[in-house]
Amino acid sequence: MNDAPHPDARRSYLRKRIAALGGVWVVAALFLWQAVALPPASRPTPVSAETFPTIVGVAMVIAATGMLVEALWEYRKAQPPPEPPVAVPDEEVVTSGPHGEEIVHSWPRLAIALGATAAYVTLFFPLGYLLSTVIFLGGMGAYFWRRPVGAVVFAVALTAGVGWLFSLLGIYLPAGLVALPF
Q1: What is residue 1's predicted lDDT score, i.e. its pLDDT?
Q2: pLDDT value at position 118?
Q3: What integer pLDDT is reported at residue 155 of this predicted model?
Q4: Residue 135 vs residues 75, 108, 142, 156, 175: alpha-carbon distances, Å
Q5: Distance between CA atoms of residues 173 and 80, nearest Å
Q6: Could you tell me if 65 and 22 are in contact, meaning their C-beta atoms sit under 8 angstroms apart?
């Protein structure tokens, strides 16, 4: 089995790393700016109050700049992803994920998921937490997981567990048509 990461996964990781390091660089620059803006000491001293923060700020900016340049260089060298398969919008497209798993891309599945979520939100108060959540999780699990019995068992267990946890925390969920057992 091939354990090499998918080229697109590497580039995606590097994009996230570049974004995070850009944020670190901004925080380091703001720290340095604030360190330099500290008021001078009231009397002359060899080491003032802003000396140590300025040194730390300069070191942070230098380190963040170095890591950012390295990540940008790695991103530049990374292979571009292969061309995605062309599909008719109504068809399912199965691609391979970064770890070899199958990923199904389908507009009808997305529409069903969004419609089911909208129905869940709409029916949450009239039906109550217990009934609406079991129907939503069971239906979505049976549709996507394609194991109806396992999906319903999972939905009931997760709904009961979350409801029990909320009752322990003193958060009361709407009862709706079925009274909550917890």
Answers
A1: 46
A2: 92
A3: 92
A4: 45, 20, 10, 9, 15
A5: 48
A6: no
> Taking CA 47 as the corner, what is the angle to CA 46 and CA 51, rounded to the nearest 5 degrees?
140
User: What average pLDDT values come out for the chain (182 residues) when binned by 10 residues?
Assistant: 60 86 91 84 73 85 91 83 58 64 70 89 89 91 83 91 85 77 62
What sign has the CA pseudo-torsion 5, 8, 13, 14? positive
Structure tokens belonging to residue 112:
């069903």
Structure tokens at 129: 């937490």
What pTM does this model have?
Answer: 0.46
Report in angstroms the alpha-carbon separations of 121 from 129, 132, 133, 136: 10, 9, 10, 10
Spatial separation of the C-alpha atoms in residues 47 and 43, rounded to whole Å:
11
Identify the CA nearest to 10 among candidates 102, 84, 78. Answer: 78
